[in-house]
Amino acid sequence: MLALAGLVVWAGSIGGVHAQTKSATGDIYTCTDSHGKRLTSDRLIAECLDREQRVLNKDGSQRMVIPPRMSPEERAAVEARKRELALAEAARKDAMRRDRNLLMRYPDEATHDKAREAAMDDLHKGIVLSDKRLQELRAERQPLDAETEFYKGKRLPGKLRTQIEANDAQQQAQRDIIQQQRTEMVRLNALYDAELTRLRKMWAGAAPGTVPVASVPSAPAGVIRPASSSASR
């Protein structure tokens, strides 16, 4: 009798373990392993973690498909692709926002032409001011040059030499400013040309964010930009 009772207890234990291995919902997992063998279980099948597994209902109908687990390299590739798509989407939204702002700023070609003229006028005024200052510096240099005639063959006094060097430096600075402003005029004209090409397409019906942006050189270092809003790009 005791032996029989022990056998019953052992059988009950086995049944309990078996019950614990079953899916709580009664789902059936099935797959074909790397050797072509069809496997079925009441839980995720370890031999098929690298391949697709189907989850069936009790009646045999398919409830879902579990994709294979990815390797670290595959996961890294997927994450990289997600980041790439996110960046592309952000760029698309930024392009749409930029083009909408552009259309609001320039509803027609006349408005765009007026902005270009204002930017060019500001730069031209800057060139005129620098040229005027350059002429003044040249005039200031004349008496200094005349004074050097008294020291031919001799070392110039420190004060005179310093004044001449300062005048040279200031003249060169004004020449640099003039060159920078002229370079900026060329750059801004190219920018307005590229902008006008895009605007004409959008005025004709192209959706904001769909027109490619032409490459335009950046402003040279140290350039003094005009005060108009069109130039601050």
Can you walk through the features of this model?
The relative contact order is 0.09. This protein has two domains: 27-69, no CATH class; 90-231. A four-stranded antiparallel β-sheet has the order 2-1-3-4, with no helix packed on it. The longest helix has 46 residues, at 158-203. The chain is α+β, with helices and mostly antiparallel strands. It has helices at 2-21, 72-105, 109-148, 158-203; strands at 28-32, 38-41, 53-56, 62-66.
Q: How are the secondary structure elements laid out?
A:
Layout: H1 2-21, E1 28-32, E2 38-41, E3 53-56, E4 62-66, H2 72-105, H3 109-148, H4 158-203
Antiparallel strand pairs: 1-2, 1-3, 3-4
Helix pairs in contact: 3-4
Main beta sheet strand tally, sense and closure: 4 strands, antiparallel
Shape: elongated
- Lateral strand order in the biggest sheet: 2-1-3-4
Q: What is the total number of structural domains?
A: 2
Helix content: 55-70%
Strand content: 5-15%
Q: What is the average of the pLDDT values?
A: 84
Instruction: State the end-to-end CA separation.
Output: 97 Å
Please provide the count of β strands: 4
Gyration radius, rounded: 40 Å
Structural class: alpha+beta
In N-to-C order, the SSE pattern is: HEEEEHHH
- Helix count equals 4
Which spans have pLDDT < 50 for at least 5 consecutive residues?
Answer: 1-22, 226-232
Which features would summarize this protein structure in a list?
single chain; about 230 residues; alpha+beta; 2 domains; four-stranded antiparallel β-sheet; 4 helices; about 60% helix; disordered N terminus; disordered C terminus
